[in-house]
Amino acid sequence: MMSNIVEYNNGHIFSQLGAELVFTQNAQGEYLSFYWKSDIYNQSNLDQKTFQPLVKETYLERIRRVIKRKIPEQCNYVFCHEQFCLPFELIISPIILSDGAVESVLVMGRSLDNASHLSIESTSALPTNPDPYQKLLTNIARKIRRTLDLETIGQQTVDSIGEALKASRCLLLMPTNSNSEILQVKAEYCEPKYKSLLAMQIKYSDHEEMKEAIMSRNAVIFNSSHCADCDALSTLLVPTFYQQELNGIICLHQCDRPRSWNEAEQELVQELADQVGTAMAHATIYQKLEIANKEAKEASRLKSEFLASTSHELRTPLNGILGFLKLVLDDMADDKEEEREFIDQAYNSALHLLNLINDILDIAKIEAGKMEFELTSISWNQICDEIQKFAHSQAEKKNLYFHIELPSTYDEILLYADYQRLLQVMLNLVGNSLKFTQEGGIEIKGEIVHKQIEINDVILPGVLKISVEDTGIGVALDKQERLFETFYQVDGSRTKAYGGTGLGLAISKRLVEAMGGKISFYSMGEFLGTTVTFTMPLAQLPLLKTENQDKISE
């Protein structure tokens, strides 16, 4: 029995190709030419409406992909004709015009004999060979969605792409911080014979190709190295974004030969970059939430400890006030002199209680942004006089030396600060030194630094660097970073032993910074003394003397 042959348009040419099924189609799936040789099916009413893929949308997506990539694909597809479904093995090739454009495809196929006569209901299990790159993309995307660990996402990404595309090296570069132009290699796939670039940093603004990739948000290819340490002959760069913000660059190197990265490879990395960018952003957010949660728990713990300690500190002077007043009221004093002593003790306890309450109120005001400052020209010499009066007698009682060294100037040193707040800082720091020093003493030094700064739109000529040094109990090196944190205490037992809320340094830091200065703490270790140094803006530069600094000492 002779085969039935259906041809239209240029079908007679296709019959010479030796394929069972040959046709051309545009991106919309319209047949431009058609040839089909079959001895089974009635083809008298065959047209492009009766011969259609079973799943049309999936088939058209493949046609459009071939047109876009300009790369042939091989697959299995089921076509429907009348009441039957016909499985075919197909090769879909782009028809490239003289100007390089592609608007249609040539499809050649043969029927699969073992499934050549099926009803529509029996086609659900028929295989269609998926696009290998699409399958790879799906596999990689599935992997990175399984984790919220940033390092795992990065390593899985570079390993999967590097192995799949047979690249010499695949890198994931990420900004070192949210506002940085510096990119660092955070994850790397690298063949053993090539140099590792892990942890290398690159300033992307120095590299035109990187800037182009970031600005265009598309893949960029070039046949040269993008840094001095790279040995790549061909490079493919694809940026990753999340909500319009750059969060990485996927970088592929081919080091053994120049390589032309085809459109399918570019599209694979581009599609993957979109998913990786989102996955990295989610992982980063999760990490920040974890850190914030830990910090919140730690803050809650510290506040609980602080409240426990402070409640004890508040009760101690309050009990003293009540106790001494009760003695006076009950006429327990032997004479007027002892009665006066009881009242003096009650008064001192009340002052101590007031200072504790003021510390708590101050830190609350600072954290709520309610602390007010009156920045004006004030005398550092006058501040030093006040500190001298405050500390002299206390130092004498403990057999400690107390020195204040002023910079050697002809005129008064004028600072741009709030007098009461600066005095409060100095009282806190000197008070701490007196409290925690049992032998030796305390020394305050000042140094003029010619460094122009701007505070509240006011240009100032320099700063005074102030140091408060003591020979006290010191602080262990591993605990010094947290000393300025609110509610943090190096050792709760110290607060009980020496008294106080432990808020002095936290308050001082915030007051100094609010007045435009910076503060730091240093100790060589436990029992090796401490030095607290801070800067305060100068209202004007004093006229310096050449001789040694004047010294106020007791």
TrEMBL record:
MF terms in GO: phosphorelay sensor kinase activity
InterPro entries with a match to the protein in the record: GAF, GAF-like_dom_sf, HATPase_C_sf, HATPase_dom, His_kinase_dom, HisK_dim/P_dom, HisK_dim/P_sf, Phyto_chromo_attachment
Residue ranges of domain Phytochrome chromophore attachment site in the record: 231-275
Domain Histidine kinase: 309-540
Catalytic activity: ATP + protein L-histidine = ADP + protein N-phospho-L-histidine
CDD domains: HATPase_EvgS-ArcB-TorS-like (cd16922), HisKA (cd00082)
A Pfam family this chain is assigned to: GAF
Keywords: Kinase, Phosphoprotein, Transferase, Two-component regulatory system
Enzyme class label: transferase
Segments traversing the membrane: none
EC number: 2.7.13.3
PANTHER family: SENSOR HISTIDINE KINASE RCSC, TWO-COMPONENT HISTIDINE KINASE
Family according to the record: In the N-terminal section; belongs to the phytochrome family.
Protein name as annotated: Circadian input-output histidine kinase CikA
Organism annotation: Cyanobacterium aponinum (strain PCC 10605)
Taxonomic placement: Bacteria, Bacillati, Cyanobacteriota, Cyanophyceae, Oscillatoriophycideae
